Amino acid sequence: MSARLSTEQVQSYRDTGYLILREPVFASDPFDRLRAFADRCYNEAESGPTGKPVQLIDCPHWGHPEAFEWIFSDAMLDLVEPLIGPDIGVFASHFLRKEPGAGRRVPWHEDSHYWRELLNPMEVATLMVALEPSTPENGCMRVVSGSHTGGYSDYAPVDDPDDVIFHFEINPDQIDEDKVVDLTYEPNQASLHHVKIMHASNPNTSDHPRLAFTVRYFPTHVRFTNTLDDDFFIFLARGKDQAGNTYSDPTIANAAHSRKDS
Questions:
Q1: Looking at domain 7-45+54-238, does it have CATH number 2.60.120.620?
Q2: pLDDT per residue over 162-180, tens digit each?
Q3: Do the Cβ atoms of 196 and 148 come closer than 8 Å?
Q4: Domains of the chain by residue range
């Protein structure tokens, strides 16, 4: 393992539930290929008869094995290993985009709230690589620092269901506004965040897109239980399994799959 995180960075992540990485994640060539791959995925997703803009592409690696060039890369795995250990599985990946003046807000939520029937114990580190600048104006991710010690807050329906990705959000009285942090960074910089941290993002009110690639990594002592109605594929990225999980073959393209057409 290459020590890409300092002892101080690891401790900061454990204390706050997030970390911003200012050093480039990739060399220039693999980063440029990732950016082009994102464009191809969005062109494919929007090639239907409606041509409807897509904000989220869910698990692009299932239908495009070339995504593992980045997902399995030392450049990414060496960033998460100090946080979750040497035996690493891949739970999911996403392209996240907010078009200028159109990207909808994401309400306050914890990923653990939505995945609670799938992973035990609930241990996931998400690495988000910026493909475009991430700013408050274009709807950057926001976190409640230190909120990762919970993970299962109380939720209520949102007031504006047509303008959001999720239709439920954490009750406002559980959000400590004094601890809200905007995660801002440039292309090829990144952030890490804990599966239980409260996070959200505002609409994109700027004239510049926000675009990021996220991968959800878990330590393989976590047991994955597929309670979904359809197939869900996980992969072994590094080390060995510790929980009796079954992993899919990363060289085989599975059926295109998207549970969120937004």
A1: yes
A2: 666 778 999 999 999 999 9
A3: yes
A4: 7-45+54-238
